[in-house]
Structures are given as C-alpha cells and as structure tokens.
Amino acid sequence: MTRFDAADATDRRQLFAEAVIAHRTRASPFLTIEVDAADAPGVADDGEDDDETPPQVPWIQFADQTFNLDCTDAELDRLKGVLSEFPECRIDRIERPEEAEGANVRITARSDPNRLGQFADRALQATYDLDDDYRAWVAGV
Asked: Which residue ranges make up each domain of the chain?
C-alpha cells in the first residue's frame, strides 16, 4: 500500500479494498480503519469539539471475514439499514458490556475485497452519520 487516507467515496472504497488485500497478503491479525478526528461526530465545522468531552473517533476493524465496530443504539439501527444493501454481510454477534454505553457489533462478511471496501465505507458513513467527503485512514494493516 502506498497511501493510507482518502476523502471521497471512490478513493475510500479503493483504499479499503487495497487494505483488505494487504491484510490478507500479510496475514496480519486485523486491519483498522479510522475516521479522521476532524470529521468525527461531535466536532464543529471549525474543527473544535462541541463540548468538553473529546469526540469518539469512529473505527471499524476487519479480521477473519468479520467486521467489528462499536456503536450506540441509534447507530446500530442505521447499521442494520446498511446490511439490507449487503446480503453477504450479517450480524454475527452483538455484545453490550455493562460498563459501556452502546454495543460492540461483529458482522460476518464473505466477499471479495472490492465489495468489502464498499461495505466498510457505507457502514462508517451511515452508522456514524458522516458527510460524503469524510476522510478515513487505514490506521493498521
């Protein structure tokens, strides 16, 4: 891989597909995609936090044909809507730790890297209500 971030849908999907290929080629434990902190929910247009609590940066991981992400109940509802577009992806497990607000969701996804890249992009954008031009980083492969 030669680049690690992208900010438009076509480039993000290509980046995510390349990350899946690199992950599989390297047999790495997982790959991690993070939304740029400036595009995270809760950050104002001027780049400042909306309140005193720093925003949570949305992320999604992929390993062993499984996506993993954390989300609130409202975000989980939006994620379920995305799954209707991707029949090759299904929720395998939802865990709700007592000490956390929200849930950890594991989604089984059996497909080619391009389709997995499309899913990762749509899941991030829809689940976390991100703008079309959000920037994402492949933070670990």
From this structure: 5-43+57-140
